[in-house]
Amino acid sequence: MRDLVEIGMGRTARRAYELDDIEIIPSRRTRSSKDVSTTWQIDAYRFDIPLITHPTDAIVSPGVAVAVGELGGLGVLNAEGLWARHGDVDEALFRLVQATEDSDDPAAAVKVLQELHAAPLRMDLVAEAIKQVRESGVTVAVRVSPQRAAELTPDLLAAGVEILVVQGTIISAEHVSRGGEPLNLKSFIADLDIPVIAGGVGDYRTAMHLMRTGAAGVIVGYGYTPGVTTTDSVLGIGVPMATAIADAAAARRDYLDETGGRYVHVIADGGITTSGDVAKSIACGADAVMLGEPLAAATEAPGQGLYWTASSAHPSVPRSLVAEAVDQELDLRKLLFGPSSDPRGVTNLFGALKRAMAKTGYSDLKEFQKVGLTIRG
Predict the structure, then answer these.
(1) Residue 8 falls inside a structural domain
(2) How would residue 172 be classed by pLDDT, with cut points 50, 70 and 90?
(3) Smallest Cα–Cα separation from 334: which of 349, 353, 356, 352?
(4) How many domains does the chain have?
(5) From its phi and psi, is residue 25 left (phi > 0), alpha (psi between -120 and 50) or beta?
(6) Residue 17 lies in a domain
(7) Cα separation of 167 and 162, whole Å?
(8) 254-277: buried (b, 16+ CB within 10 Å) or exposed (e) per residue?
(9) Range of the domain at 326
(10) How many Cα atoms occupy the beta-carbon half-sphere of 61 within 13 Å?
(11) Whole-model pTM above 0.90?
(12) Could you tell me which residue ranges the IMP dehydrogenase/GMP reductase domain spans (predicted)?
């Protein structure tokens, strides 16, 4: 039963919870973390860890996408980002870093990003970036916005994309555009021979709508990062992640029954900054997590310690700062698998997930979704 709170005469709001509001309960059984599996599979593609990178140029270059793939995750390139617009991305990133160093005004770096993203998209550059990833042998995934999905997808498929991510701050089953044909995800996905991951969503109904389009995965959230994303301040829109993940997992269960066995993966994207957040996301029902800011600490990250999301470059309503996201630098392998000497949960992210699963007695991700939870008082 929904927990409704009266916020004024005749107006109620649903009580919802963030990841910080919940805790995982150990069970009567424990096991060795060596006996725990974090593998998962979407369509024909199998991964060793439940990691998808948030598609921001701050953390994902073609080289990083390859490195993430070789470490068992899925790196997602932004097909509308800097690697799609500039032949010399290093020069573009240098301009951005200089703007953060030369000015105390947070708008200065955002203005540079807007200028960089005003350059036209070049499919030859996109194809070259995809080629680098494809030739390494790892799974090739790219992100497009709902507004440009129909336009860009044919060229992306020709370049060798294997998983398509259609992602916006908020996405619906049908994107309506004045003066143009709407993007109907159901017919769009039906015409493709590759799996599509779509989102973000924040509630049961929208998650169910996206599942009915034929999406292989649904993204919950919009990449909220404290001190970086400003969607709540700019649009008044927020996604309480613990509740949203649980709602999407309920939609997944009902859709499984509705279709007689079609399973759609739930991917959590937002409010995940520590290994504990990773564990709690899976415990709430996610199949994988989409990480952004935690990976900005990697020495391989192109943002050089800065972090922003794609919404920072919106030409008229930017919703992300360009922020100094890290106070240390580690290689990607150590960030994901340790060993760690940092007790804050910001390194060895997936080694810690294994330990959480072992401490509560679960051997794989699907089992761990059944772990007991409590709410902080």
Answers:
(1) no
(2) low
(3) 349
(4) 1
(5) beta
(6) no
(7) 16
(8) ebeeeeeeebbbbbbbbbbbbbbb
(9) 23-375
(10) 16
(11) yes
(12) 18-308
